[in-house]
Amino acid sequence: MTDDHKGWHSRGYLPHFDCPESIQHIVFRTLGSLPKAVVDALPASVDRRRETIDAALDRCRGPLPLADPQPAIIVQGAILHFDQVRYRLLAWCVMPNHVHVVVEAFAGFPLGGLVRSW
Predict the structure, then answer these.
(1) How far, in Å, CA of 62 to CA of 32, rounded?
(2) N or C terminus of the chain with fewer C-beta within 10 Å?
(3) Which portions of the chain are predicted below pLDDT 70?
(4) Rounded to two decimals, what is the model's pTM?
(5) For residues 8 and 18, what is the distance between their CA atoms, to the nearest angstrom?
(6) DSSP code at position 24
């Protein structure tokens, strides 16, 4: 692992593994996609927390900006832009209020930077 990759780390609520050549499933969501009541009631267990968030996102409450093809195409373009340069893109799915990406990061391109670039 290079110095710029963090390995296992957490910001206190969900562990992340940042290592080149490891396959990652990343989910990111749009603003307002989780109602405040859901966020306030999130369980302490990481597994239960992930299940609760996934279920809430799949219910598609709140704004659905990516249901509009124009912004969805922009997000898809951002994900595809550095494929085979900074990472190997294995799969992606743009949902109405969140995005799934399965990716293998290349050495020298930490996971946090990839996600911020999208």
Answers:
(1) 6
(2) N
(3) 1-3, 6, 8-15
(4) 0.80
(5) 6
(6) E
